[in-house]
Every structure is written in C-alpha cells, then in structure tokens.
Write a structure and sequence with these properties.
The chain has 253 residues and is mainly β. The chain contains 4 helices and 18 strands. The radius of gyration is 20 Å and the shape is globular.
C-alpha cells in the first residue's frame, strides 16, 4: 500500500489532460528559484514556459513503453523490461531504430503501481490511435510514451528520390493498434491545426506536420508542375499528404 501526497493535489500543479493510463500535469510556477534566476523564471512563466510531467497509472493498462531515459521514478509493483521477445524481435527493433532515428530499445514497464516520467518544458500531447484509423505516423523525435500493446513500425515514404533531394529522412516511426500514445510537442494542442482529408491533397512547405494517418500517401514533390514554376513560387520542394485521413500540423517549427 502507498499514499502519494503533494503531487496532483499540489496547489501549484494543474492536471492538463487524462487519457487511458496517462495523466499530464503542469507546474503553474517554477518555485525552485534564486535571486539570480528569478527574472528569467518570471518571464518564462508569463510566456507559458512551464514544467510538465507524464504520470502513468499502471493499473489501467497491461504495460507502458517509454522513450529510453525518460523514467524519473516509479512506485509500487512496477518492473522494467526490455520488451524484446527474442533474437528476431531485437534485430527488428535495432533496424527500425536505425532508420527512424529513434532509440532502438525502448523500455517497457508493467505492474500495478505508478510510473512518473522526467519533467519537460515541451507540451505533452496524447492521441488515441484508434481515432486515427488504428495507425498514425509521427514526425522525428516526438515519441514520449505509449501503451505497450501498440506496435511500432518503420514507415517509408512513397518516393525515395524526392525525399533525398529535399533533405528529408526516408523513414518515420509509425504506431499501430488500439491505445494511447503521448508525444512531446514544441507547441501546445491549442495551436495545432487538425486537417481531415477526403481523397484530397495537402502540401506543406517545411516540417510543420506533427503526425498523420498512416494510410495517407506521403511524398516530397516540387511545389509547381515544372522546375520553372517551382522557382517562380519560391517554395521549391514541399511535403505532400495525399488521400483520406487526418493531419496534425503546428504553426511553427
């Protein structure tokens, strides 16, 4: 048995969102300051630069997979595993990590206690993958945690040559199944634009897209039909999402 005090019931802590086994908390002020840092901390707080943490209630899930090194503390009957289910699984994860730029081995936690991740100044977004047709693709470096029943896949974009020309990576991390995934985003959910495509096309000049439905065709193409047209528009190559599905886009990088 255990009792947690002064965490979610702290007057300086606000519960931002709860979804599945996850709870996001936000510290309203940074109280651990000194005279030398007080001014910077004050203006950071005024601009919504605040510490946030992800809390995982292990009793509400069969397991949680987190980004390597993200665990801060755990309480109760919680155990960490590698999540590797044999030699083939190890090599598969190693290859996926190499091509997507993610850590090859992400620890999995199981049990009936509480798992708390390291605080971050980024915004924590939670997405129910089932609401994205059961499969979602993430931009590089956004993954924070997810329910362990979700599968991780390396998703290759449709046209390799244009991806190389555009200086983009060839693979992204895909998450499939029924469960919740938590992401670290540079901007809050209030600023994210969600676009639903119905057999249509979205063209984006830059890496503003945070996540998109896996069934969308993702390519890098010239903004115009010709090299002259692209040069005249001043845009050059753009990221193109084509088909039926959803796209989550940030206003800034």
């Amino acid at each position: 048995m255990y009792t947690i005090k002064n965490l979610t019931d702290n007057r300086n802590v606000k519960v931002i969102e709860e979804k599945g086994p996850f709870t996001v908390i936000e510290f309203q002020k940074d109280l651990s300051v000194n005279p030398a840092s007080a001014i910077n901390v004050y203006y950071a707080n005024e601009m919504n630069i605040r510490k946030r943490q992800l809390i995982c209630n292990m009793a509400n899930t069969s397991g949680v997979t987190v980004q390597a090194g993200a665990m801060q503390w755990m309480l109760g009957d919680v155990a960490a595993t590698t999540g590797i289910k044999g030699v083939g699984d190890f090599f598969g994860k190693a290859v996926r990590g190499k091509v997507t730029g993610e850590t090859a081995i992400k620890p999995e936690y199981v049990g009936n206690g509480i798992l708390v991740l390291e605080p971050t100044y980024k915004h924590v977004l939670m997405i129910n993958v089932a609401e994205w047709g059961g499969a979602i693709v993430l931009d590089d470096g956004l993954f924070l945690a997810c329910e362990s029943n979700l599968k991780h896949k390396a998703v290759m974009r449709s046209n390799v040559s244009s991806a190389v020309a555009g200086g983009e990576g060839l693979f992204n991390l895909g998450i499939e199944g029924n469960g919740v995934v938590a992401l670290e985003s540079p901007c809050p959910v209030d600023e994210l634009v969600e676009i639903e495509l119905q057999n249509d096309v979205l063209k984006v000049d830059g890496n503003f897209v945070v996540a998109w439905s896996k069934n969308l065709e993702f390519t890098v193409e010239r903004s115009g039909k010709s090299l002259i047209g692209s040069a005249a528009s001043g845009e050059g190559l753009v990221n193109v999402y084509r088909g039926t599905g959803k796209v989550l886009m940030a206003p800034v990088l």
